[in-house]
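Q: Hi! Curious about what UspA protein looks like structurally. Here's the sequence.
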Amino acid sequence: MKTILYATDCTKNDASALKYAYRFSYIMKADLHVLHVYDFPPIHLSVIQPIEKLQNRMKQEKKDIVKKFCETHLKNEFRETPIKIHAVENTSVEDAIIDTAKKLSPDLVILGMKDDHSHRGFFASNIANELLDRVNFPVMMIPNGIDYTCISTIVYATDFEQQDIIPITKLIEIVRPFEALIEIVHIYHTDTTTARERMEQFKNMLLEQVSYDDMTFKTIASDKIKSGIISVINSENASMLAMLERKHELDR
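A: Let's find out. The predicted structure is below.
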């Protein structure tokens, strides 16, 4: 892993996601790019200065804000490993993230989860979903207030799809330095042998294409997919939940 892109709205509630992104990139020995997206306000005709000059000034001001945000919350860590700062003017956060990702070709994009204090609804569910619909790189969502700890167990929720192979392969690349356990789980509604048989078939298909020693396979019965996944995360004290982006609702 060489490049990680972290997008932030520079609010206090996003500080924990910044720390997580920085420490994760440090462990992975990857370059960390911090992106902030902003709107350029409407210009009145009475403004004397050229618009281009105003735009350049605002861009530098936003970069300074991002730098101050990083210095404030990373403290001494900020000086240990260089961070590349990007301030991008765009009315669409997801478009700016995608455009920046096209230039940087990151191995991973890190986002903070929905922040009620964000003026732009920066990571509202609809923005995150639209981003996932349009990208082909892994996206890591960091909940508010979470502290970085060494990744030990990852739960990957599967529906036995061929498309799961690529994200699991990328997940192995991400967690291999941590020697973390990957638990492949499938949540099903009725207690039949079908789920176990399909899991065995999926396991055989996966192991023909990937190699990773610390990987287990489980099927879990639950009335709802979401509650079943949460139950697994809690019982295994998982550091991370991973899955292929899907259209269906987890609450079904």
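A: A fun detail: Residues 51-74 form the longest helix (24 residues).
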